[in-house]
Design brief:
Blueprint (H helix, E strand, L loop, with lengths): L8 H15 L1 H6 L1 E2 L4 E4 L2 H9 L3 H17 L5 E3 L11 E4 L7 H12 L3 E4 L21 H5 L1 E8 L5 E6 L2 E6 L3 E7 L4 E6 L4 E8 L2 E6 L3 H4 L4 H13 L7 E4 L3 E7 L5 E7 L5 E7 L6 E4 L5 E5 L3 E7 L4 E7 L13
Parallel strand pairs: 2-3, 2-4, 4-5, 5-12
Antiparallel strand pairs: 1-14, 6-9, 7-8, 7-10, 10-11, 11-12, 13-16, 14-15, 15-20, 16-19, 17-20, 18-19
Helix pairs in contact: 3-4, 4-8
Length: about 350
């Protein structure tokens, strides 16, 4: 309402949304986001340490840079604290600016990789123990055995510098950031990236049934606002066998969110962040559905091609909500009283 008590366009929009939610109340009430395959480690002790060292901007930038890169790949991550690492549901776990790693956290990470997970570390990873003291060998707490590298020295690099990486059969150059670590590499580990001086910049080490990747600079920080770094992390996800739950092709910047509802129903919300309408194709390989309805009346075309594939046009700065189901399944009475 405006200040004179008259309806505005926002009133009508809110009324429309409320009517749709009420009509499909069980779907909206019970639908939950499909779990991410990607995790970001966030430790409060590490955050306090970096704040005490006046490096909390590095910690925040590393989290933001990684999150943005993974969001751009349509694989938004979940945050996980060290105490929950025994229950990691992720295929890949990133350690952004994780300077402080305790012995207990390291054991959990080692178990995760041994069981088949992929862990990714960056420069200064596991430099300090629970007291904030240096581990004599870095990465510390035994993680040098997991990553297959040991730091020989670390250099401050105020000048621009680059590294060349090969991922998923593609070679890409990206800029490093602030530090360059000189590494000794365990025999048998794979160097898949080098700095311009030829020293190892990226190392992959098989450990148990999993693998650990180590970058000798702060690519987590460098990724913020950098499309080349976004592409690099997209290739890294593919290399690790991580695929987005929703594959988007088409115009504009579209943010997908997939939710699993009651029975075999799903809700796919597509938000167009662009200032122009977006014609898109959205694919969900994990879903086999025979009926799709856009709850606000947008026309949508369903194609059968190895999972769910839909085509539609989403207005500028607007969204689409797709109700996905199998025709013939027991219908839910969306008008039933709660």
């Amino acid at each position: 309402m405006d200040l004179h008590g008259k309806r505005t366009g926002r009133y009508d929009a809110a009324a429309c949304v409320n009517a749709v939610v009420r009509e499909h109340e069980p779907l909206f009430a019970e639908a939950e986001p499909v779990r991410s395959q990607v995790g970001l480690l966030f430790g409060h002790d590490n955050a306090m340490l970096t704040a005490g060292l006046a490096a909390d901007d590095f910690n925040g930038q590393a989290l933001s840079g990684l999150y943005e890169a993974l969001w751009a790949a349509h694989c938004p991550p979940e945050m996980i604290s060290p105490e929950y690492l025994d229950r990691i549901p992720y295929r890949i776990l990133f350690l952004p600016y994780a300077m402080l790693i305790t012995a207990a956290t390291a054991r959990r990470l080692m178990s995760y990789v041994e069981s088949g997970g992929t862990v990714v570390g960056f420069a200064k990873c596991a430099m300090l123990d629970h007291r904030g003291w240096y581990w004599n060998t870095r990465p510390g707490a035994g993680l040098d055995e997991v990553f297959g590298v040991r730091e020989r020295s670390i250099e401050y690099r105020p000048d621009p510098f680059v590294l060349s990486l090969t991922l998923s059969g593609m070679t890409i150059e990206v800029s490093g950031y602030h530090h360059q670590q000189l590494l000794d590499v365990t025999p048998g580990a794979e160097i898949f990236g080098t700095f311009s001086d030829g020293s190892p910049a990226a190392v992959r080490h098989r450990f148990g049934r999993g693998q650990a990747l180590y970058f000798a600079t702060h690519l987590d920080i460098a990724a913020f606002g950098s499309p080349p770094h976004h592409q690099m992390f997209n290739l890294l996800l593919k290399d690790a066998g991580v695929e987005p739950a929703v594959v988007i092709q088409g115009d504009g910047c579209v943010d997908p969110h997939l939710l699993a509802g009651p029975g075999n129903e799903h809700l796919l919300i597509l938000t167009n962040e662009s200032a122009a309408p977006a014609g898109i194709t959205a694919g969900v390989p994990s879903i086999d559905a025979s009926a799709v309805e856009e709850l606000f009346g947008l026309p949508v075309q369903l194609r059968r091609a190895g999972g769910l594939v839909v085509e539609l046009r989403v207005p500028a700065h607007d969204a689409a909500a797709l109700w996905i189901r199998q025709v013939g399944q027991s219908p839910i009475d969306h008008h039933a009283a709660p």
